[in-house]
Write a structure and sequence with these properties.
The chain is mainly alpha-helical. 54% of the residues lie in helices and 6% in strands. It has a two-stranded antiparallel sheet. Strand 1 and strand 2 form a beta hairpin. The two termini are 25 Å apart.
């Protein structure tokens, strides 16, 4: 599947940091978490106006909760 979204460098840094933090204790859970995040990015790229409006955002953006493992 072609990626229809762009991950900014700061977000990429946060994703890698969180992945490593989770993987330290549970590499399988880290892989599951990252797959959920990627699927969420893909869903948002297909339907950009889904989710709740984020109040503390200076641009148009939304909030999308991701369930815990």
């Amino acid at each position: 599947m072609t990626r229809n979204y762009r991950v900014l460098p700061a977000a990429e840094f946060d994703l890698r940091y969180n992945y490593r933090y989770i993987a330290y204790d549970n590499p399988v859970a880290a892989d599951r978490w990252l797959n959920k995040v990627r699927k969420l990015f893909e869903m948002i790229s297909r339907q950009p106006f889904i989710g709740e409006s984020a109040v503390n955002c200076s641009q148009i953006c939304g909030a999308f909760p991701v369930a815990t493992m």
